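Protocol step 6 of 9: fold each sequence in the batch and record its structure tokens directly after the sequence line. For illustration, a two-sequence batch is reproduced in full.

Sequence one:
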Amino acid sequence: MKKITIAIDGYSSTGKSTLAKQLAKHLGYVYVDTGAMYRAVTYFAMEHGYITADSFDKQTLILALPAVQLEFHFNAELGFAEMFLNGVNVENEIRTIEVSNFVSKIAEVSEVRSKLVEQQQQMGKGNGIVMDGRDIGTVVFPNAELKIFMTASAETRAQRRYDELQSKGQNVPYEDVLKNVQERDYIDTHRDDSPLIIADDAIEIDNSYLNREEQFEAVLDLVDELMKTM
């Protein structure tokens, strides 16, 4: 059976990665978490002091990009690939609210986007891939056979992110999480390079009132219908 490219875009904390992992596992496809790649570059910038609450040394980060090596290593126990930065597993470090506060600013940098988009396109050669992010259906894979755009209210997404952080022992006020979600939405949709927009041929899904399984089944139905036409 022909394998396809599935591009999943959408706002932060809409469950894109969860959905993508479910689809990839079910279909036997490769899964690429592009958000983890941007988070890893953000973590690199934070560790080297290129970005702080008060400053952002963009040019120094750009010059340092050749020293940023990103790899996904599959973890059989977890059932998905983890993010490695320069040979070190940073999967837990990149999921903090501190990284979330800076990642949209890092993603605005054209040189960062160019570096990561090139890597993402290489990963997708040969099809049979599920990739989620902000510009997958518009920039990375504009010819993807199936494009999904995920959305939900900011309050719903903030609550999901808050619950996730709490479960990991990160005691962050809900108000801070909501502010982060709203700020990321603004930056993602207003940046000059590859802003978050809905591709003309994308199918929009508002999952404000869907649980994970309902969301998965809805998208799997779309995949099945598409496969019947190929």
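Sequence two, same batch, same settings:
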Amino acid sequence: MEDAGRGAIERVGLIGAGAMAEAIVRALLDRRVVAPGQVVASDPLAERRTWLSSQYAVTTTPENRQCAAGASVVVLAVKPQQMGEVLADLRGRIDPDQLVVSIAAGVKIGAIVAGLEHERVIRVMPNTPAQIGAGMSVWAATDAANELDRARARTILRSLGRELFVESESYLDMATAVNGSGPAYVFLFLEAMIDAAVHIGLSRPVATELVIQTALGATLMARDSGQHLAELRNRVTSPAGTTAEGLLALEDGRLRAIVDRAITAAYERSKALGA
């Protein structure tokens, strides 16, 4: 088993067995952070329990309390509208030395602390690329979450991709609008590029391969080159060339303003849901 150092996890209890919970299970097992025998997941749906146990050899149960009992880390991986019922079910059942990690969008740390009557809580805003190990997770913690708790959270989140700790929970609403909702913006832009490529005459399979690989390569360059995005863009843009013409059309369409509006709208919605 891989040595996780101070972030070693003895047992994980996942409340909820949906797509993100499955991504966590798969990542922790693939990276040998834990063995199957150290994972328990609860879910009311028998088919989800059967799927997880058959695919990953982990223990499953319909009982949240049984799932949480004895876990060093309890992960709340349920939908926000289910959180009230889950918190009520687990209230008084979480030991003082257990860490609770919530990935439920919009559910405030204070609500979790009050609902569980438990102080050691970390709230995470992950995103869907975590399902392929390329996620971006932003997280905040209560003062009661000690260094071991935070190390354990990093161990889990780094198995899903990259992670970023923020001091204030208020940043999580902003993160929701960027990394949480962001994949959908990217998918929409890729879809628009593919449709445009088909419009000018490329077949859809060819257009799809060109667009996705181009976006992947450009993203990796943006991440790894160390250069400002404007500098990278300028290197592609020749005077009076095709790229300059295309960029002019995007600027005429107020692309930047539209993106700003989208992220601001998502941020405001995140705050409203949290309230």
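Proceed to step 7 once all outputs are recorded. Observation for sequence two: Residues 204-224 form the longest helix (21 residues).
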